Amino acid sequence: MELLIAANPNTASRLRYLIRLPLDGLVFATSDTWPRTKALYCHPMDADAWPADAEPLERIGLRACNRRGAAIDIVAERSREGRSQLVFTTARGRDVVFWQSPRTVKQSRPGVSTPTARASGIENLSVIVDSHERYAYDFAGKPVVVTRRALPCGDYGLVVGDKLVAAVERKALADLTSSLLGGRLKYQLAELASLPRAAVVVEDRFSEVFALTHVRPAVVADSLAETQVMFPSVPIVFCQTRKLAQEYTYRYLAAARQWAADADISAGAFGVTAETGVAPPSPQPSTAEVRAWALDVGLPVSDRGRLKPAILAAWHEAHR
């Protein structure tokens, strides 16, 4: 008795794998080969969707595969990652199937309840959600007024006057890993570091970094540490679940709003005087000046065109 996993012949689908259960020939399309870090959505397929010439990527021997009510219990013949379950349920009024394991169930239900008290005592917190953010936090049950519009950086922002003074970038573990290894995260952090306050929230636990299978966990951990040392003003916070990451985002932006309300702090942070509220003159360098400075200090910079955000952030850091 085996659980068979093969590549989905439909290369345009985001569900890259097909799984076939030894139970009535059930076939599903899904996005991974085992629910390691999150519950996997499974799309039911016809039995003949399994390719006749399929070369299984994995053959997982099973001790048991039994239907129990609205779930199918799967027990693999191995000591680690041995148990999982396909659950038939409904979401947004339609039937869906999720493949989960004890780890993903525990992760989605951490056994804590979030507080109901207003963050920093703010009755109505205005949060800007980036218009490109998919499946954004709704801050349900929180005294938050959400507005969607494009943000220069971050996914959730706090605007005081007409200035973006705080932002939070949201990351799933897979997105964090790919942006770390691809170098994209450094540019995002350089932009966030230009704000008075910014943070990155990760919807997972740090321990899950060492459970990654498609990359070397040590490489990810080293890259994460090096990036945090490079941008110490932008903390990267692992929040275990989406719900807790939303809670942290809400309370971080509320704390930033309270901080910005302090006249002395805001005068220094936003470049205005507490007495007049008028910004003092603050000449900005030309592109040529920044390029010359970068060459002097040994930073790689192109001979023409726009400067990279990392170069501008380095200049501002050096001339703060």
UniProtKB/TrEMBL annotation:
Q: Which residues form the ERCC4 domain?
A: 126-206
Q: Which UniProt keywords apply?
A: DNA-binding
Give the Gene3D superfamilies listed for this entry. Answer: 3.40.50.10130, E3-binding domain
Statement: the UniProt record of this protein carries the keyword DNA-binding: yes
Keyword DNA-binding applies = yes
Record protein name field: ERCC4 domain-containing protein
- The protein's organism comes out as Candidatus Mycolicibacterium alkanivorans
